[in-house]
Amino acid sequence: MPPAQTAVTAVLTEKFEVSAESIRPEATLESLDLDSLALAELALALQEQLGVPVAEEEAAKHSTVGELVAALNAKRER
Predict the structure, then answer these.
(1) With CB atoms 3.0 to 4.6 Å apart as the test, which of 25, 31, 73, 77 could cross-link to 66 if both were Cys?
(2) Which of 26, 25, 24, 23 is nearest to 14 (CA)?
(3) Dihedral sign for Cα atoms in the order 76, 64, 29, 11
């Protein structure tokens, strides 16, 4: 199972063609040009890669990459 940061980066770069340089902890998902449909797809892709449930609120427009990674890490530790 890949680390959360690796999974988030991989999904954003491969599935949504976000440049790796743009994926910083303080970047919001909205600033990465992800609309509501993309956010739902992101949550599903991360769920599949990491094997943990990802709520839509965790992958919301106002969420930062860092917050998403922290939430995923916390779930994986349970």
Answers:
(1) 25
(2) 23
(3) negative
Cα dihedral 10, 45, 55, 37 sign: positive
The per-residue pLDDT for 2 is 67
pLDDT for position 58: 84
Q: Which amino acid is at 36?
A: S
Name the phi and psi angles at 25, rounded to 5.
-55, -35
Count of C-beta atoms within a 10 Å radius of residue 11: 20
For residues 43 and 41, give the distance between their C-alpha atoms in angstroms, rounded to a whole number.
5
Q: Scanning the structure block, which residue is given the tokens 């770069």?
A: 13
pLDDT digits (tens, 9 = 90+) for 7-49: 999 999 999 999 999 999 999 999 999 999 999 999 999 999 9
